Amino acid sequence: MKLIVGNWKMNGRRAALAEVEAVAAAADTAGARLWLAPPATLVMAAADSAGDRIAIGGQDCHHAEDGAHTGCISAAQLVDAGARFVILGHSERRANQDESDALISAKANAARAAGLDVIVCVGETEAERDGGQAEAVVGGQLQGSLPSGADGLIVAYEPVWAIGTGRVPAEADVAAMHGFIRARLVARYGPAGGEVIILYGGSVKPDNAATLMAVPEVGGALVGGASLKADSLLAIAAASA
Ligand code: PGA
Question: Is the pTM higher than 0.90?
């Protein structure tokens, strides 16, 4: 079964909890495992409403457990709110909050120590791909931003130029990059690296999900825009089955 993760980014008010409930209500027959990362303001309420039916997660966390970090949220606080996973190193945070590989790795280790599964995002820009640098960039991100162990780790390959643009890479390019990521994970973690789920993310929609999810080494999807409505997230899950 594929893992389909919705990333709501900075979208959603209380009223959107109805979408969480609709996804949770359909989880048993969805055809995929479903996880949702609403904005931090909704994590606790979403986790309460979802119960054990779907996992709720955060979109970022701080690497410290507590302390003088105004505006930040720790992994332990996410756990306390009912979160079961956290997305780290999303390209929007790498670009807009200047997050470095080393910082993302520190967050990933902190999140694992707190008991969260971690989804570490990697992906090249269009200029990097056009310049033949896609594997070098993704390889560097993997080298620098992963946690020390493979347990509880998920990697999301999200080409920056495919996020929110409606453009997706050719299947052969997805296959090549996922194969490259798998080889790096095995080289680093040994057999445990062979078990790490590798998600594809970037403009996954109900009408392209079946094709993308059939690519070798694609274990599921990280979905932004199309995850905001239960109907479209569930259609992606159904298409991935
Ligand atoms: P998108 O976003 O599905 O809207 O392209 C994906 C992501 O950023 O995780």
Answer: yes
Specify whether 90 is catalytic.
Answer: yes
Model confidence over 199-220: pLDDT tens digits? 999 999 999 999 999 999 999 9
Confidence band, pLDDT 50/70/90 cuts, at residue 179: very high
Could you give all domains of the chain from N- to C-terminal order, each with its CATH number? Answer: 3-240 (3.20.20.70)
Q: What pLDDT is stored for residue 104 in this prediction?
A: 98
- By alpha-carbon position, which residue is closest to atom 1 of ligand 1? 224
Ligand 1 pocket check: which of 7, 160, 207, 213 to mutate, most ligand atoms within 8 Å of Cβ?
7
In the reported structure, the alpha carbon of residue 115 is separated from the centroid of ligand 1 by a whole-number distance in angstroms of 25
For 58: left if phi > 0, alpha if psi spans -120 to 50, otherwise beta; the answer is: beta
Q: Which atom of ligand 1 is nearest to the CA of 87?
A: 9
6 is written with which tokens? 């919705």
Which segments of the chain does DSSP mark as H helices, in order? 17-26, 40-50, 75-81, 91-96, 101-114, 126-130, 134-145, 171-189, 209-213, 230-240
pLDDT at residue 6, rounded to an integer: 98
pLDDT value, residue 46: 98
Instruction: Identify the residue whose tokens are 């992994």.
Output: 75
CA-121 nearest atom, ligand 1: 9
Amino acid at 70: T
Active site residue 171: no
Burial pattern 88-124, b for ≥16 Cβ within 10 A else e, equals bbbbbbbeeeebebebbbbbbbbbbebebbbbbbbbb
